[in-house]
Amino acid sequence: MYMLILYKFSEIRVQLVPKLSRCIYNGRLEIWPSKDWELESIHEFEVLEMIREHISTVIGLRANCSVTDSWATTEIQRLRLGRVYVASILYGYFLKSASLRYYLEECLASAHQDLHLTHRNSLQFPEAWSYGLKQNQVVGCVNNTQSISLGRGTNGHELKQENLKCYVMGFDPETLQRCAKLRSREAVNLVEKHSCALFGDGQTGLLDTDEVILTSFSSLKRLVLEAIAFGSFLWDAEEYADAVYKLKEN
Question: pLDDT in tens for each of the 250 residues of the chain?
Fold first, then answer.
């Protein structure tokens, strides 16, 4: 699965951040180039809006901040940064699952609406014959009525359709857990090993350290965007691997 994830990153020409110690120069963590555009390009607009809110929450960087704000320095514990990274992986995984569920339900609702309108219009044929209309008049009348009705139905459906954020906020606890939980044990192990390799200290490889890192908000944003993309790609890789190898359920 890890190789599939790496391949996904290579498709958008993004290299994963190496071990954190390799990115520290003169006592400051800097990740360059940022690759923000590439990492954001894989998401739909509504998903991207939720990602920007997540970034604002976990690192305190506003969505429309200035360049000066992005390059402002801040301090963060290595342990906390590791937790933010893992949480962002899980958030990316959750968004992938929830958005697919959202778009599927949206398509089903639209198909049901169209089916209902088609069925309603088909009932107009016997009524038209009872008034002695000719066949070509009936066809023209029904076609015109159907096009108008479908237009109204589609617009009505769009007005009633809630956006992704509202849809997710309406999840009950069971649905929320189903979308957020990693489905396989292999995925859990992969996230643990990847995060330890990235943030662990040089001796034990564990995240349990009180070291404080000086960095910029731009570098923090890069890490969070990468983690979210990692989670999204993990969902795809897990889906593919499970279809072939039948992974162990988590």
Answer: 999 999 999 999 999 999 888 888 887 898 888 899 999 999 999 999 999 999 999 998 777 777 777 888 899 988 899 999 999 999 999 999 999 988 888 888 766 555 555 555 555 544 444 444 444 443 444 344 333 333 334 444 443 467 888 888 888 889 888 888 999 999 999 999 999 899 876 555 566 677 888 999 999 999 999 999 999 999 999 999 998 888 888 8
Residue with tokens 């899980």: 90
b/e per residue 53-75 (b: at least 16 CB within 10 A):
ebbeebbebeeeeeeeebeeeee
Q: Quick check: helix, strand or coil at residue 52? A: helix
User: Could you tell me if 15 and 198 are in contact, meaning their C-beta atoms sit under 8 angstroms apart?
Assistant: no
207 token code pair? 């995240």
Instruction: Give the sign of the dihedral formed by CA 247, CA 230, CA 16, CA 75.
Output: negative
* Pick from 187, 157, 161: nearest CA to 92: 187
Residue pair 154/113 in contact (Cβ under 8 Å)? The answer is yes
Amino acid letter, 132: G
Residue (of 228, 222, 232) closest to 61 by Cα position = 222
**How does DSSP classify residue 202?**
T
Q: How many CB atoms lie within 10 A of CB 121?
A: 16
Q: Which H helix or E strand runs over 188? A: helix 185-199
Stated as kind and residue range, the H or E segment containing 213 is strand 212-216
Write down the pTM of the prediction: 0.77
Q: Token pair for residue 38?
A: 């590439």
